[in-house]
Write a structure and sequence with these properties.
7-stranded parallel sheet; 6-stranded parallel sheet; alpha/beta
Length: 374
């Protein structure tokens, strides 16, 4: 079977790119001839909130990445469709996460559906954006209509799919574990690499900082904690106004309890943060699913998530972590319980047992099965 996976990939950076590369690697491991068709860039510079769209990390080995797609040029879309057609795919998998890309991805799916015999599936990270966007519903409807099937990474996304199509064939497959960042390190080694004090407790907020991720809730929770040796590491580039959070930290008088690492964390550095952390905290206000949770699973790191979207589907409350309300008080209470009752070792053992159900080989097999079903 020839599989073409359409979505961002190296040298573009970000969670969707990592997912696409991992999916392609999983397909290749299962014996499928697989190539990625990626974008030359994702956003015009005036729309991009970060410092760079491109990663310094080397491309993954053994994966053919074709950087063909200009997201704003319809003439290019015709050329790309022709190039993909020459690859003679049996299955085209399109990664969808934002309505901004619906025109190009919807065009390609329609063109390939007419000009090839390939089944066209989508892996939907989100269908309804976390932050409001103009024409998002009509754009997503345009994207969904021609698809032969939809893979939903959370049950909440599968529910959202019914808004756009009540009869579209779909399957819920949880986000697999990310195993691309190396192995877990001894805590002492990770702490030393990051120049941290080994006497402290460390909680980790990881990834791009955007409003919907609820960092403000976590900072307010830290102000309520009675744990003077607990330190919050906020590791990720700010896509929101950092001054707002600096002022909040100052107003809450928790300057000594928060470390900001305002930078995109490169692949070879990820293991140090997750190996140093006692727990990963995701106080999201809205969510469907998150790759950060699956990085935490790989590194056997307990998690605290809010009860929103698909996060509670992945984290088993009281076993692999905590599921709490979107409340600073409840977040603070769960962090206190974690340390008071010394729950880390039990949760780590539960994570080691639980994470095997989130494998890439199972995910790939189920995607192929969906493509073959009537």
């Amino acid at each position: 079977m020839k599989i073409v996976s359409i979505g961002p990939a190296n040298p573009l950076r970000g969670g969707i790119a990592k997912f696409n590369e991992s999916f392609a690697a999983g397909c290749i491991a299962e014996g499928f001839d697989t190539e990625i068709v990626s974008f030359t860039f994702l956003y015009p510079s005036f729309l991009f909130p970060g410092k760079s769209q491109y990663a310094d990390d080397p491309p993954p080995e053994g994966i053919q990445i074709n950087t063909w797609i200009h997201p704003l040029n319809p003439i290019n879309w015709l050329i790309v469709a022709r190039r993909i057609r020459k690859l003679k795919p049996d299955l085209v998998v399109i990664h969808y996460w934002m309505p901004f890309f619906a025109p190009v991805l919807g065009f390609l799916s329609r063109r390939l559906k007419r000009k090839t015999k390939a089944k066209i599936l989508a892996i939907t990270h989100n269908l309804i954006p976390h932050e409001k966007q103009m024409f998002s519903w009509s754009l997503t409807s345009y994207f969904v209509k021609p698809l032969d099937g939809v893979v939903c990474l959370s049950k909440s996304v599968q529910d959202d799919l019914k808004i756009f199509s009540k009869s579209k064939k779909s399957v819920y497959l949880p986000h697999p574990v990310y195993d691309i960042y190396g192995n877990k390190l001894p805590r002492q080694e990770a702490i030393g690499h990051l120049h941290l004090d080994p006497q402290n407790k460390y909680l980790l907020f990881f990834g791009l900082i955007r409003k919907y991720k609820g960092l403000d809730l976590l900072l307010k929770a830290f102000a309520e904690l009675d744990l003077p040796d607990a330190i919050l590491i906020v590791a990720g580039e700010f896509y929101d106004n950092k001054e707002i959070y600096d002022e909040l930290v100052k107003d809450l008088e928790i300057e000594e309890s928060v470390i900001f690492v305002d930078a995109f964390i490169h692949d070879d550095e990820v293991k140090y943060y997750f190996s140093a952390a006692d727990m990963v905290v995701q106080p999201y206000i809205t969510a469907t699913q998150s790759g950060v949770t699956q990085i935490a699973y790989h590194f056997d790191c307990p998690m605290l998530v809010t009860n929103t979207g698909g996060l509670a589907e992945i984290v088993l409350h009281g076993k692999t972590g905590f599921v709490c309300r979107k409340s600073p008080t409840d977040i603070a209470d769960k962090i206190s319980r974690f340390y008071k009752y010394k729950m880390a070792d039990v949760m780590i053992e539960n994570i080691k047992k639980e994470k095997h159900r989130f494998s890439w080989d199972t995910f790939v097999k189920q995607v192929v099965k969906l493509s073959e079903s009537d």
